[in-house]
Amino acid sequence: MAEADPGIFGTLARIPEVAIDGPAALDAQLRAAKGPFVVRELVADWPLVQAGKSSAREARDYIARRRRDRPFTVSVGEAGSDGRMFYDAAMAMNFRTMRAKLPEIFAKIDELGDEELPIYLASIDLHEYFDGLHEANHVDLGDRVTLDSIWMGTRTRIAAHNDIPDNLACVAVGRRRFTLFPHEQFRNLYLGPIDNTPAGRAVSMVDFHAPDLGAHPRFSEALAHAQVAELAAGDALYIPAMWWHHVEGLDPFNVLVNYWWRETPRWLGQPQDALNHAILAIRDLPDDAKARWRDLFDYYVFGNGDDVTAHIPEEGRSILAPLNPETAGRIRAFLLRQLSQ
């Protein structure tokens, strides 16, 4: 797969780089961050990084020795797709998803050599699928409760999407190019369906290697706000929650380790669920009805001012008071009962 013409990426603003000296400095930088940043060589001392610098095969052997004996989920794309894990012309996926043991997957990658075939293992839980890999290769993120995952594959392109949690992405093997957009740029990225998606999140329909500005004219505005970085093995990137990111594996074998975390309590609901339910319950109402519901959402959810509860005795405010695990659980149980009817 030929790498993207730098004419597209070469004109974009660069993601800021910061120097980090130890976990306390990283913690402070993350807490103060208003946007993405790159830390060069943050994980350069990882044994996995060192193995990969020796050779891609040594990196695969290092990972395989620590695997658990269980099937892994792997996606296999189409030859000639330029590594793009995306839709086909009928809006079905242009890749097959299957289960196989990790040595079998790595043997296929070895067999390919220089042949271009997208193979992608996405978001594999480090604790469930490996013994000792996380312990030997991890970032100290203090008291954050993180979801720790590894992503492995050949040269691939993952369409621009966003994630609800904050994300620290660490390149362990190979090189990756990240192109980021602020959260408000979603209108200019021409998003696809929110239910039929390559990996659970809506993606940009724009081909970043060959953008069609006739079909997607607002993409020019998105590019005006884009930031890009190419990360080598050992480098890390902080992606704030809800920022859109297009990700490319640039080498024949690439490995990323990432950490997701939310600053909000885990017992809160998922906003995406609320969006899906609003589409079901509100979107297709008459305009006047939608306007009334918009007012109610502004009042109870987005505004949520003192006037909502000031006239209600404090002990009687129920779910209008700040949520806690008990009241959140009560809402969840109520919704489950309603949706099951």
TrEMBL record:
<dbReference type="InterPro" id="IPR014710">
    <property type="entry name" value="RmlC-like_jellyroll"/>
</dbReference>
<protein>
    <submittedName>
        <fullName>Cupin-like domain-containing protein</fullName>
    </submittedName>
</protein>
<dbReference type="Pfam" id="PF13621">
    <property type="entry name" value="Cupin_8"/>
</dbReference>
<dbReference type="InterPro" id="IPR041667">
    <property type="entry name" value="Cupin_8"/>
</dbReference>
<dbReference type="InterPro" id="IPR003347">
    <property type="entry name" value="JmjC_dom"/>
</dbReference>
<feature type="domain" description="JmjC">
    <location>
        <begin position="98"/>
        <end position="276"/>
    </location>
</feature>
